[in-house]
Each structure stands twice: as C-alpha cells, then as structure tokens.
Amino acid sequence: MNSESSVVAKQTDAVSDTESQSLRTRDQLAPADHLEILRQLYLARYFDVRLIKEKRRGRLRGTLYSSHNQEAILVGTLFGLRPDDWISPIHRDMPAFFLKDMRSGWNNPDRKGMSVAEVCAQVWGKEASPIRARDNWSHIGSLDKGIIYSTSMLAATIPVAAGVAFAFKLDGQDSVVLTYNGEGATARGDFHEGINFAAIHKLPLITIIENNQWAYGTPVELECPTEDVADRAKGYDIPGLIADGQDVLDVYDKTMWAVERARRGRGPSIIECKTFRAYGHGDHDDDRAMRYRDAEEIERGRSRDPISVYKRYLVEAQLLSAEEADRHTPENRDALQVTDDDFPPEVIAALKEAVEFAVSSPLPEAEEAFRWVFAEDAE
Ligand SMILES: Cc1ncc(C[n+]2csc(CCOP(=O)(O)OP(=O)(O)O)c2C)c(N)n1
Ligand SMILES: [Mg+2]
Questions:
Q1: What's the pLDDT score for residue 374?
Q2: Which domains are assigned to the chain?
C-alpha cells in the first residue's frame, strides 16, 4: 500500500489542478458534524465486532463479510449525501444500509436509510427483515429509501445504477447515485459497460472502489494492470480520484467534490479508496487468509485504524480533548479483544436494542417459501 502522503496527494490526470483545489468540503463541517462522524465510525465498528462475536458464540448462521478497518469509506462517502440520493452497497458494506441518511437522526423514523434493527433482522434471518428471511446478508434494497438491491454478481449493480442516474437526468432531478465495489469487481465487464454508458451520457454516477488489496485470495496486482485502480477512469475521460480510505475526511472531501460535480450535470467519477481487508474474505476464509497473506502485510494493512486516524485529527484541530479521545478506545485491536466498555453508551444502546429486536423476532412460517414466486394480488 502507498504511503499516507502519496495516497492523499496523487490524483489521476483526469482531475485538473483547478478542479482539485476545491477538494476541501470538510471546512464547512460544524464541530457537531465531526462528533457525529466519530459516532458513526464507532457504530459501524461495533456492528462488525458484535456480529463477529455472535458468530463465534454460535448465535448466528450464514457467512459474515467483515467491514472492519474499512468503516471510514462508508461513513465518509455517505455523510454528505442528501436523503434523495441513491446508493448501491455490496457484501462488504453492510453498515451502509443503516448509515444512509443517519445524519438526520439515528431514531428518526422518516429517515431515508434502513434502521439498525431491520439490518440486524436481516443478519439473523428473521421475518422482520426486508426480504422476509430469504437470505442473511446484503441482498436487500428499498425503492422508498433509495437503496438499489444488492446482488451477488459483482459489478452487476453498476449498469442498474447508471439506469437510475439516467432517470434522474431525464427527470431533471439533481440527485446522484453512489455505487460501491471492491477493486476485484472492476475487472468485470459490467463495470466497464455501466461506466461507459454513464460517461457518454454524463450521468450523476459515482463509483466508489474499496481497494482493500484482495479479492478473495487474489491480490490486487493480479486483478488490475495499473498501479492505481482509479486509472481505469482514463479510458472514459472521467475523473479518477484517489482517497486515503483510512482517513474519513479525505474520503468525504473527494466524494463531495464528485457529488457536486455530478449535480451540476458534469457526469460520473470514480473514487478509489485505498484500504486493507482486516480479516478473511468472509469468516469462512479467516484461517486460510492467515496463510495466503503474510503476517507482516496484515500488520501493516491494519496499522492505520480509521478511528485513530480521525481521533488524531480531531485532537489536533481541538475539536476533541485528548481525555475524550481516550475515553473509548476500540481502535487498533482485534474484534475479539474489544468489549462493550470500549464503545460509547449510545452506540451500545443502539445495537443492543436492534439485536434484541432481531433475536426475539419470529422465523418465517414454512408457507413463506411459496410467496413472491408467482404473481400475487396486491395486498
Ligand atoms: C461475477 C462474480 N464472480 C465471482 C464472484 C465470487 N466472489 C464474491 S466476492 C469475491 C471477491 C470480491 O473482491 P472485491 O471486488 O475486491 O471485493 P472485496 O470482497 O475485497 O470487498 C468473489 C470472487 C461473484 N460473487 N460474482
Ligand atoms: Mg477487494
């Protein structure tokens, strides 16, 4: 992985110097916004930690795809969006389903994101889940909330997202669509077809690439011929930005730059966020991943925890005292080592309530399997 400074400074040629000067939307954030960003980072981390522990205790079934160490990408890309913007998360982005529009209030029933409880019901495979227990992970979406249904076919949501962005353009609406993909997915045909279409029609589509250096057991150098995945943008003459995926404000700045550009009708961008996958591809791969990646690489990849990178910024900017920063410290530690005492009480409370809801919700009746198979009368 590149060093911190080169990651932040380097942009692909498609972003001109004049354009990149406006890359500091962070200056408009209020102190309360900064503290909310930190709370959301804690929430995303605690969701992951809690699920990993539940799985280890045998209280969860199905595969778990951890977003540990990648939380700054989710919070940084979602924080500045409007409720009417759309997103399309994938398997690595489970917290994105509840982080969307969370800025409008964690308990706001009208917010355009899923509740933590709904997402937990999905993970526990309960009837109260958005797809009524047909799966336990990211195959969910919502037309009302502006979330494109995720599928297992990597990159297949990009042409769909381009279609949503095309509709925005035809309707004269200045909303944008953000799609999320791993770097591995950028090798798929759908990725190129979708972005090609968006570039030709100057659609408000922003493709976030979470470059965590691995696609299952394949390293990035066997997935992409250029050093930076963002360079794929050159083939479409669109901006290819590179963000430090461990730095929530760098992700935020680059996202907002691309979002504002898209709202002005200037078309799509790609944002490559450099990060590192902390665990195996899924929990079924944890042990193998310890063998196909060496210990030194894992240690280096985890060494810049997004929570500590952000806390350091907040303390230096005098937005948080050193004492407050040390009050809760889940960062730089393995999921199994942290306890509830390492998180703020409001984060624990949000998850506790959601998990209790999921655990106490009923499993579906057997008849459920026959629903949504054939056309049904509208209820
Ligand atoms: C078209 C397609 N090929 C293969 C797979 C199996 N698969 C699921 S996730 C994955 C790795 C994805 O890597 P990347 O895009 O880098 O995302 P990451 O898991 O690292 O976040 C693979 C190969 C799939 N789901 N879809
Ligand atoms: Mg990857």
A1: 87
A2: 38-108+138-344 (3.40.50.970)
Listed in sequence order, the residues at least 6 apart from 217 whose beta carbon sits closer than 8 Å to its beta carbon are 281, 285, 288, 289, 292
Burial letters 128-153, b for 16+ CB under 10 A, else e: bbbebbbbbbbebbbeebbbbebbee
Q: Give the pLDDT of residue 6.
A: 37
CA of 11 to the centre of ligand 1 (A): 26
231 in Cβ contact with 202 (< 8 Å): no
Mutate to test the pocket of ligand 1, among 135, 139, 281 (most ligand atoms within 8 A of CB): 281
| Residues near 265 by beta carbon (within 8 Å), at least 6 away in sequence | 169, 202, 204
Q: Retrieve residue 244's tokens.
A: 């430090």
pTM more than 0.85: yes
Please say whether the beta carbons of 20 and 255 come within 8 A. no
Q: How far is the CA of 181 from the centre of ligand 1 (A)?
A: 9
Burial of 96 (0-12, 13-18, 19+ CB in 10 A): buried
Residue 67 backbone phi and psi in degrees, to 5: -105, 15
Below-50 pLDDT ranges, the chain: 1-9, 13-14, 17-18
What's CA 198's distance to the chain center, in Å?
21
Does ligand 1 have an atom closer than 6 angstroms to the CB of 146?
Answer: no
Residues in the chain: 379
Rounded to whole angstroms, how far apart are CA atoms 317 and 84?
A: 32
Rounded-to-integer distance, Cα 99 and Cα 110, Å: 14
Return d(Cα 58, Cα 35) in angstroms, integer: 35
Q: State whether the beta carbon of 184 lies less than 6 angstroms from ligand 1.
A: yes
